[in-house]
Amino acid sequence: MATGVGMLLVVCISVCAAFNLDTSFPLLKMGERGSLFGFSVALHQDLKTESYLLLVGAPREKAEPNVPANHTGGVYTCPISANPSDCRRMKLIDPSESHVSLDMWLGVSVASQGRPGGRVLVSLCSDWLIIFLLVRS
C-alpha cells in the first residue's frame, strides 16, 4: 500500500513540475542595455500581415526623439524569426502631449486580448499613473 501511494506521489509531482520551455531552439531578441528589454512579453496575432508577433516591454528605454523626457519606457513588436535585432519600437507617445513624464515605465506589462486580431494592452507604472490622475483633476 505504501509503495502504491509513493508511486502516485512521484507521478503527481513529475506532472505538476512540468513546464513548456524550448531550450533546444531558443528565440533570442536583443534590446538596449539598461532598458529592461524583455521585462514583459506577450504573443499577438496580427491579422493585417497574417503573422504572429512578440510584444516586448522595455520599461527603462530611452525616450523617442522630440519627447521631453530622458527615459519613458517603450514597447516593441518582434517577428517570430531567428534575427535577434529585428524588433521595431511602437509609436505610443505623442511628443506634443504635456503629460509625458520621466520614468513612467511604459511597457512594464503588455498583454494581447488573445483572439486573432484582438487588442493590445500596454500599462504604465502605477505610481506615475496616480500622479497623472492627480494633475489632470
TrEMBL record:
| Transmembrane helix in keyword set | no
Signal peptide bounds: 1-18
Which GO BP terms apply?
cell adhesion mediated by integrin; cell-cell adhesion; cell-matrix adhesion; integrin-mediated signaling pathway; leukocyte migration
Q: What is the lineage of its organism?
A: Eukaryota, Metazoa, Chordata, Craniata, Vertebrata
**Highest taxon listed in the record's lineage:** Eukaryota
Q: Which UniProt keywords apply?
A: Signal
Q: Name one GO molecular function term.
A: integrin binding
Q: What is this protein called?
A: Integrin alpha-2 domain-containing protein
The residues bearing each FG-GAP repeat, given as ranges, are 20-87
Q: Does the keyword Lyase apply?
A: no
GO-annotated cellular components = external side of plasma membrane; integrin complex
InterPro entries (alphabetical): Int_alpha_beta-p (IPR013519), Integrin_alpha_N (IPR028994)
What PROSITE patterns does this protein map onto?
Answer: FG_GAP (PS51470)
